[in-house]
Amino acid sequence: MRRLVFAFAVWLLAVGAALAAPGSSLRCGKLLDVRTGQMLSDQVVTFDDSGLITSVAPASGASAGAIDLSHATCLPGLVDVHTHITSEPTNNGYARLGVSVPRQAVTGVKNARLTLHAGFTTIRDVGASDFADVAVRDGVNAGEIEGPRMQVSGPALGITGGHCDDNLLPYEYHYRSEGVADGPWAARAKVREVIKYGADLIKICASGGVLSKGDLPGTPQYTLEEMQAIAEEAHKLGRKVAAHAHGTQSIKDAIRAGIDSIEHSSLIDDEGIALAKQRGTYLVFDIYNDDFILQEGAKAGMLPESIEKERKLGRLQRENFRKAFQAGAKIAYGTDSGVYPHGDNAKQFGKMVEWGMKPLDAIRAATINAADLLGWSDKVGSLEKGHYADLIAVDGDPLSDVKTLERVKFVMRGGTVARNDSVK
Ligand SMILES: [Zn+2]
Questions:
Q1: For residue 136, how far is its CA from the centre of ligand 1 (angstroms)?
Q2: Residue 286 C-alpha to ligand 1 middle, in angstroms?
Q3: In angstroms, what is the span from residue 208 Cα to ligand 1's centroid?
Q4: What is the pLDDT of residues 20-63, one digit of tens each?
Q5: 263: CA distance to ligand 1 center in Å?
Q6: 57-71, 148-162, 233-247: which has the minimum mean pLDDT?
Q7: How far is the CA of 349 from the centre of ligand 1 (A)?
Q8: pLDDT in tens, 311-348
Q9: Please, what is the end-to-end C-alpha distance for the chain in angstroms?
Q10: Best CA proximity match to 26, nearest among 371, 398, 405, 410
Q11: Which residues, including other chains, have CB under 8 Å from residue 208's CB and lie 6 or more apart?
């Protein structure tokens, strides 16, 4: 028995040393340079005690890395710019009303870990009740819980009765979501308020949505004037703005107002695509979750009207994704996780390739493009000196089969190993 305890203690020490390993290196059989698109062979990535990459270079005989990934393909940690880690796909429609905000924060703790372990070392969380997302981000940053780097929006801003309001209860409950703000000055004040309580960016609802009650995805909600006020106020305070916009007019109004990214982008037309290109606005198309909503939505408590709306929208969104990409618009990888189960974030890569992207372009959407949208190009999105040692590894070649990214075997965040499933 005592010998067993001793063996266990030795094992613990060894594991502890391997996990802590401050300032170390790893050896990659292949490594994808996302900027050039080149797949490099036999590379060593070194990083320092603060978790920053100090070099990426060909392995020389003696430079065998401390962590051996010589049979695997290494890529930069992935980025999802549209998540809701405090939401679950099981809490839809009226079921959602029974979930407290503290409970949502606990859900966020679980999902932060799941998301990181799926290879997403950075996320942008766009819309959470009562700043539950701020609490999760701060817990991750303090090292108390495991999770990706996070930019969070807090409550999403929207009009009374719109997609970002909560329209489930009748009048006598006098309930509205905390992000509701009507009119340019009220919207400016709301921007200031969410920043006061910890928002890294501003999320707004420009048009109607799928999972909300009593509105239509194609109809405008915020006016051009309101969005101009929001964009100006947010930019003045050093924050970017993400606009939920399915509708053709809302997409164009949002781009003209100076919004930084259009979320969903479902009914974008040629003029909208041209405007996005001209203004450098990022388009985010969440084209995986349509399948989940149609197949699982009813079981997951989604309202019948939501499933009907999705049925009308899903295919058009995918066709417009292809159009926008082929026209050369900037695309960032965002999935709307929380609508579908967290940890499945990589399932959108396959859809993007099915609808016309090359695997390399889909990977760029989730690395250099997403990092650019977040304003973090100097930190994440590629493996180079001075960036965080955020790195994942898979078996096989994601440039020939992008679905290998659904089976990430190794995840490192800032030089700390989060997952290592003994890559072959
Ligand atoms: Zn969303």
A1: 17
A2: 9
A3: 12
A4: 444 699 999 999 999 999 999 999 999 999 999 999 999 986 55
A5: 8
A6: 57-71
A7: 18
A8: 888 899 999 999 999 999 999 999 999 999 999 999 99
A9: 34
A10: 410
A11: 162, 163, 215, 216, 217, 218, 219, 221, 246, 247
